[in-house]
Amino acid sequence: MAFRGQVSEARRPAPRLYLVIPQQLAGHADLLAQALGAGVAAALVYLPDADQRTQIDQVKAVAPCVQERGVALLLAEHPELAAPTGADGAHLNGIEALKAVLPALRPARIAGCGGLATRHDAMLAGEAGADYVMFGEPEPSGHRPSFGAIIERVAWWAEVFELPCVGFAASLDEVNPLASAGADFVALGDWVFADARGCAAAVADAARQLAITDPVA
Fold it and tell me: What is the pTM for the complete model shown?
């Protein structure tokens, strides 16, 4: 894992969006297509509890509209389905889950890691070989750290490490602060799909917030 002091002083790339697709929308390619606006680099799909055949069918239903736009398609907690569905990778919850599937995902697919409660956990995920780390996503119970704590974690990571980090935005108001703190990607949660104007408008708002961010050196 590269540290900031070991590399040149080039600025980090401009932050991009990371769209989180909730379970109830996993198979809705039409709605997902509307949300994949400018600046979206990756889409993370949470699959509903169902038999594997149904899950595979749902991923295959959305894969073309995602990947044909140059957006990486990632599966949450189902790394075993990445190869059968042609997904670009998987997002794992915790270091042990990451380590367990890295041999199966590498070298062809992305392996991201969230559920990192401490700085030490994040460093371990990077050392294990994660392609990115995520900070601030809600737990299954809905609890998440304070936003101040999330900003602090993102800023620390961006200052010290080269490995990309994703900051989870629970609302539009959190997008710009996360990007300004140094997040390489800003994850957009359920609020995008709850917007009364439609998800395309919500994603466009988030993209405008990124556009006024001064990238961290």
Answer: 0.92
